[in-house]
Design brief:
The protein is built from 14 helices and 35 strands. By secondary structure, the protein is α+β, with helices and mostly antiparallel strands. Helix 4 crosses helix 5 and helix 4 crosses helix 10.
Length: about 575
């Protein structure tokens, strides 16, 4: 163990002599998000800044507004400016109008084409390729999400519902990934983010109209899942991901089926098999029925009529209409003219659905993404029969965007739409520290960015006894957004709830030296600081501030030495901040 610690110390000391001091600033939680931009596996590319930017690592650089090239030099990132070339482990262009719209950077996104990005952009090198992180205000981020997860043409109440969902999802990820270099990616793996476009005025208006609003359950912000279309029935997280979250339930959603843009694939089985009706069938389905009838009867037979088609063996319990089979009961005739009945089981995901109805418009769809199988009575070209069906574009958990579109057209308000999909949840507003009730403590120092002075081993119960709130209530929350008991750690936070729990404000807890958020100061904190100093896994928020062991608002060799000495028992890290 001691040998490993010595090796870490040697590596750390070598690293910090090569790297510049890093600012250790923590802002109000939830004000900004960090998005990993999809630039692909690239070692260089061009981009254009518009407005006034400064280089964080060298304020003397004239960034300008000409096209710039970022590239990799000797394993580090390099940008060639008009007056000089700067090379470092990480380079950040900071906007002079961070909360506004006048500064932006245009560049080519591998997934989304040319995009315009507000806020700050950080370039570094990971696994031999450039990485780009866009840090910007949460509300500005939503400007680039809402019109691409839905469509700017959707009714305003549907767009408002989408804005609240996207904000809730983003913040839940911010809680989860506080100690990661970024909070979300810019694709459907999290939420589709294309950057800013002023033309999306309806979506922008929906974001502004719901500013700060999130969905809550108990004391936590929910991870608000949503999908394009649910196929006429919402699903539960237990069915989809084996995780039972109480506000996601299975319930019928007829508005999804009413939307002509909800994609479905159909395969028709007629009541009577004639020369005309078999032409309406998918050839593979007809073959399966004919072959099964021969196999089951043990002789050559022809299909005469369909008596019933019944969906069978639901994939899940609790009323799910996601079926795996359909039982087709047929009337058949042999070569002697004798008729009889038999039942053919069809495995639905083995059926080739050739007839596609509708499209998903701006959202786009591939039939392979449809996943809800069933069977129902139908008519085709005036002939009666049944359709084998496959619907649901996406997982079906939470809000259906296509259903929300119809609900909004029919006059439903966004709060009503959301209450249907997220059962038993409430809505609260994320409020800036300056607008929240003030906290007082004789033991801790409280600012918008952090609560400090918290000792290793302090408990949530201890903290609540030593903090008072002029109005409202306070709760200690875990880094994942759940109510906390027992020992606290860096990345936990104090939540101020007020205005009948309709508003809240979160303030991170910082224990200096507890860099990894374990609540202790040990060798793992050295490793976390090592990865940060080597730019392999950057710290953020409360974790970045916790690494500032000597409280001078920057990370340098002095913090490394103090952390090492503390772990070796040669010194202590003071938690009190003047």
């Amino acid at each position: 163990m001691k040998a490993r610690l010595k090796a870490l110390i040697a590596l750390m000391l070598a690293a910090v002599f090569l790297l510049p001091a890093v600012q250790a600033r923590a802002e109000g939680f939830g004000e900004s998000v960090r998005i990993k931009i999809s630039i692909g596996d690239r070692r260089s590319f061009k981009f254009t800044p518009v407005g006034k930017f400064t280089l964080k690592e060298d304020k003397s650089v004239n960034v300008g507004t000409d096209e710039l090239t970022v590239s990799i030099t000797g394993g580090r990132v390099s940008i060639a400016f008009a007056d000089k070339t700067v090379t470092a482990s990480s380079l950040t262009l900071e906007s002079a109008d961070y909360n506004g719209l006048s500064d932006y950077i245009r560049l080519r996104n591998k997934e989304h084409g040319t995009c315009t990005y507000l806020g700050n952009l950080t370039f570094d090198v990971v696994d031999g390729y450039l990485r780009l992180i866009n840090t910007l205000p949460l509300e500005r981020y939503l400007y680039g999400v809402v019109p691409h997860e839905m469509s700017n043409s959707f009714p305003i109440e549907a767009l408002k519902a989408q804005a609240v969902c996207a904000r809730s999802y983003a913040l839940s990820r911010c809680y989860r990934y506080q100690n990661r270099s970024y909070d979300l990616v810019d694709t459907s793996k999290d939420q589709v983010y294309h950057g800013y476009a002023s033309k999306n005025q309806r979506a922008i208006a929906a974001v502004d109209a719901t500013a700060g609003q999130v969905l809550t359950y108990g004391t936590g912000i929910i991870e608000a899942f949503y999908s394009s279309s649910n196929g006429g029935q919402t699903d539960s997280t237990r069915n989809v991901w084996d995780e039972d979250i109480p506000y996601y339930v299975v319930t019928d959603d007829p508005f999804d089926l009413e939307n002509a843009s909800s994609m479905e694939r159909l395969s028709f089985i007629p009541e009577r098999f004639t020369e005309e009706t078999v032409k309406l069938m998918d050839r593979e389905v007809l073959y399966k029925l004919e072959q099964a009838a021969i196999d089951l009867s043990g002789q050559n037979v022809e299909l005469v009529s369909t008596i019933s088609v019944v969906p069978d063996e639901p994939e899940h319990e609790e009323g799910s209409r996601c079926y795996t089979k359909a039982i087709v009961t047929l009337n058949v005739r042999n070569e002697a003219g004798e008729e009889g009945q038999l039942s053919v089981p069809l495995t639905l995901n083995e059926v080739a659905f050739a007839s596609a109805n509708n499209t998903l418009g701006a959202i786009g769809a591939k039939s392979t993404r449809l996943r809800m199988y069933g069977a129902e009575r139908a008519e085709n070209a005036g002939f009666g029969g049944w359709n084998l069906t496959v619907r649901r574009y996406g997982h079906g958990v939470g809000l259906s965007q296509r259903s929300a579109q119809v609900r909004a057209r029919l006059g439903q308000k966004y709060a009503d739409i959301l209450s249907f999909y997220y059962v038993g949840t409430g809505m609260s507003t994320l409020t800036p520290y300056e607008q929240a009730p003030k906290l007082k403590s004789d033991k801790y120092k409280i600012t918008a960015g952090a609560i400090t002075g918290v000792s290793v081993g302090a408990t949530a119960e201890d903290m609540l006894k030593n903090i008072s709130c002029e109005s409202g209530s306070i709760t200690i929350m875990s880094a994942k957004g759940n109510e906390k008991t027992g020992e606290v750690a860096t990345g936990n936070f104090v939540r101020i709830s007020f205005d009948d729990n309709r508003k809240y404000c979160d303030i991170p807890i910082v224990i200096f030296g507890d860099v990894d958020g374990s609540g202790k100061i040990d060798k793992d904190d050295i490793e976390a600081l090592q990865k940060h100093m080597l730019y392999s896994k950057l710290l953020g928020g409360a974790y970045l501030k916790a690494a500032d062991a000597d409280h001078n608002n920057k990370l340098d060799i002095a913090d490394v030495i103090r952390l090492i000495r503390c772990i070796n028992g040669d010194a202590k890290i003071t938690q009190e901040v003047k």
